[in-house]
Every structure is written in structure tokens, then in C-alpha cells.
Amino acid sequence: MDISELTPEILAELRTPRPYPAVTLVLPADPKEPFGEKTRITLRGLCTEAQRRLAEDPDVERDVRLTLRDEKLDPDAILDLVDPSVPAGELVVHVSAADPTRLWQVPTGADATLRAEFSDVFLTRYLVAAEQRSWPYLVLVLDQEVCRLHRGSAEELREVKEHGFPDTPAIPSPEDAVPGAIPRAEPYEAHEEYVRQYLRVVDTHLGQALKVHDGLPLFVVGGEKILSSFLDLTAYRDVVAGTLPLTGMDKDSPSDLAKRIAPEVGRHRAGQVAAALTELEDSRSQNRYAGGPAEVWTAVADKRVHRLVLEEGLLLAGKVGGDGRELATLPFPEPVTLPQPKEDIEPPAIGVHTDIVEQLVENSMESGARVLFVPDGTLREAGGVAAVLRY
Predict the structure, then answer these.
(1) Residue pair 118/23 in contact by the 8 Å Cβ criterion
(2) Domain finish residue from 219, 239, 271
(3) InterPro entries in the record, alphabetically (predicted)?
(4) Reduced to 3 states, what is the DSSP secondary structure of residue 53?
(5) Contact between 123 and 24 (Cβ < 8 Å)
(6) Same domain? 300 vs 373
(7) How many helices (H) and strands (E) in the chain?
(8) Is 322 exposed, middle or buried (0-12, 13-18, 19+ CB in 10 A)?
(9) Among 190, 209, 224, 227, which is disulfide-ready with 163 (CB 3.0 to 4.6 Å)?
(10) Tens of pLDDT, residues 211-221
(11) Statement to judge: residues 261 and 306 lie in one domain
């Protein structure tokens, strides 16, 4: 599955308790050959490690162990779920005895660390962090024939087919038809008002989508007249991050549309980074600033973070204190070069967490904080992570 398909509903379903164990596998994919032999070797080693842990875990029932060992933790069956058309630098796999296996293809600039984790829920923090790293956004394409909404992630777009989208105008009669006049007929007086009524309906559906995709920037594409009308009437003008002329984009495939809108998205990203750095600087004088992994970890645990800012390639390992509020950072383990996959997946020392970044992101978002990844080196003095506090 493409990371752009991740929705709050899917996240909630993944977090639903399941019979133990719900297994989460995380592994890097070679960007040059995401699903080639190197990835297969790595996945084979990871599945072997998960099977070993199953055999040694007394809490796993026999029938569940056999189903997972013989059917679900088969690397070839897992890779059969891959969509070669979707880019990936990381794979996240959710496996349980009672559910269909789900494989998520994640484009990410960070190096994934091999993990096989057992719990009574599928772990979603890796997906949440990866999605935020990919700079998600929305694109609304306005057209009198049909208005479409897309969700962008990295350089990919996926059409949203819910919340009333795609939205085709109602056609009460040929004389009142939207879009526009009947072929070879004179334009009728009410046409522009019908278009505005249609755009009001689109705006209502957009509001429903924005509640689900909270906080994402919105880019609006449309012809000059319809774009102007929409911007005049929309209740969501403040979330519009940029606009583009239609120029045939209503017929573009999602991938072509993503390429055409990329410069505008890039400009907005640069503006977001600049604004976040200014906000961090201003927060210092207001005693609402936290900088460095340990200080930020405590602020996140206390649910005091308004905005979390992290470098895109940041990797953190550490030990968490008994009350969950204290973090002692440790050097991140160096990966072992293949072809020794068994050595690659040796677990870290007892009590050491290598998913500190993912935990920071998910815990921040669950408390209502905004999360922004910035280019590496931007927060060098703060150790790669800083936050604006609520108080």
C-alpha cells in the first residue's frame, strides 16, 4: 500500500487490539532497486528472526505460532504484495494470524532500522513519522465538469474518493446543465450562478475532507474564472497554500499533476521551514522553547508541545526513564553491511530504543501538536530536534 493511502480511519483500525502477537516488521529498501535481491535477503533474515522469537515466546498460542510461521511470515508471500509502480525507501509490514498481511511502501529520506516488534496492536508510529517526513498536502482541481481532490505525499498523488469527491454537478435539466451552455447554444443567464452554487457544494465537501486531513496545506488548481469564484466564496481561504492555472490539468494523471505542481509545493515548503525557524526563535524569549532530544522528550511526555520540528534524517537511540518522562540518548547502532542479514537484525542492548524519533512524532500528534521535518543541518545546535511549547 502507498503511504498516501494512510487515513485516520486506517490508523484507528491498525491500533485496534488484536490477539497477541500483532507483528510489525520494518526494513529499508534499496532506493536504486527497491524490491530487488538485496531487499529480499534483508526481508528473509527479518522473517527468520521473527519466527525464532515466535518459537521462544511462551505467550504465543500454538495454532497462532504455526499460522504465522508457515503462512504469514513467508518473505516471498510478503513481497507479492509489492506494487512496483510505488517508490519506496522503507517497507513496513503488519502481520497477524487473523488479518490479511499489509505491506506499506514508504518513500523516506531517513535510514530505516530493521525491526521485528510483537504487540497486541500493529505499531503505527513508523507510518506516522514517515508520512510527516514526506510532506503531505492536498490538491483540489476545479472544473465545471467534475472537481477532484488529491492527497500528495513526497512526489506522489492519490485521488481522494470520499467526502463527496469526485464531485460532479447535479444536472436538473439540459437547459440548466453545468458545465456551461449546451453545444452550439447561446449561454443562458443563470449559468454563472449555477457554477457558484456548484462551488459552494464543493466547498462543503472540502470542509469535510479538511476535518480528516487536519493541518495539511491545500493547493487549488483551476481556470481563471472558476478559481476566482472559488476563492471569493470558500470558507477555507486561510488554508490555501498556493494556486495554479488549470491549463489542461483536469485531464492530467495524478503523477503528471504532481510533477506540474511540485514547484509550488517546494516554495511552500521553504516558507514553512522559514516560518518554523522564526517561531522557534520567538519562543525563546517567551520561555516556550525546548531544544535537544532529552528536553523535547520530556515536553512531549507532558503534552506541552505546540509544534515539533525535526531534521529529516534524524535517528535517535536512547533509554527511557521509568516514568516515561526522561530520555538518555545513546549512539545510534551502526548497520552491518549485507550479506550478513542475521547480524543486521541483532536486537540492541536491553532497554535501548532505536525508534525515538517515531515515538516523538506519534506522541506529539496524538496530543494535537503540529509536526514539521526540516532539512538536515537546520537544527544542528539543538541536536536535530526542537519544539515550541504551549506554555
Answers:
(1) yes
(2) 271
(3) Bact_RF_family3, Ribosomal_eL30-like_sf
(4) helix
(5) yes
(6) yes
(7) 11, 16
(8) exposed
(9) 209
(10) 988 888 999 99
(11) no
